[in-house]
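wait is this the right file?? whatever heres the structure
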């Protein structure tokens, strides 16, 4: 590793430890020439993830872009920044675990909405209105009605899921 002070190529590692929740290794080094100490980080190089936009164009996945969209949806809402960052972490982890080199924005949007609805319902509706690009008020009202039904009847929804898992054809509506 090249010394940042004298640019000598040789150095020795004095200390190594995990950093950034195990995603990287922090190394404390000492230059063999000038003997000054410096820190380096080693991490796995992730392959670039490409997002396929609605118009078919492609761009590199951006955590920052996701976070900006969530911040905008949560504006003037009591949602801590660390909650939004954790939500972005979860979505990015989920996307990368799919091990695909490309992913449609539709899938990313659905992953965000699945998580955002339990964080803040108003932010969920704001995000959904931009993400789904509601063409008229009726579609928007249906989304709100679905949200209200889910929040009024969380147990009924769970029971419906249990019936479906057990092979019961009653689903969510059969009680």
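ok assuming it is, sequence goes like this
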């Amino acid at each position: 590793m090249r010394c940042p002070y004298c640019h000598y190529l040789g150095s020795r590692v004095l200390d190594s430890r995990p950093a950034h929740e195990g995603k990287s290794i922090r190394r404390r080094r000492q230059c063999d020439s000038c003997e000054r100490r410096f820190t380096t980080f080693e991490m796995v190089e992730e392959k670039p993830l490409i997002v396929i936009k609605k118009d078919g164009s492609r761009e590199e996945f951006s955590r920052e872009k996701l976070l900006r969209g969530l911040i905008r949806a949560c504006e003037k809402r009591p949602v801590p920044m660390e909650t939004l960052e954790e939500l972005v972490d979860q979505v990015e982890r989920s996307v990368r675990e799919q091990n695909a080199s490309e992913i449609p924005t539709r899938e990313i949007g659905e992953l965000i909405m699945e998580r955002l609805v339990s964080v803040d319902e108003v932010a969920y509706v704001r995000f959904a209105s931009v993400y789904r690009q509601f063409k008229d008020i009726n579609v928007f009202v249906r989304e709100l009605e679905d949200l209200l039904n889910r929040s009024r009847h969380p147990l009924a929804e769970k029971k419906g899921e249990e019936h479906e898992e057990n092979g019961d054809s009653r689903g969510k509506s059969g009680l």
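Confidence is low (pLDDT under 50) at residues 155-175. so i think its the right one actually
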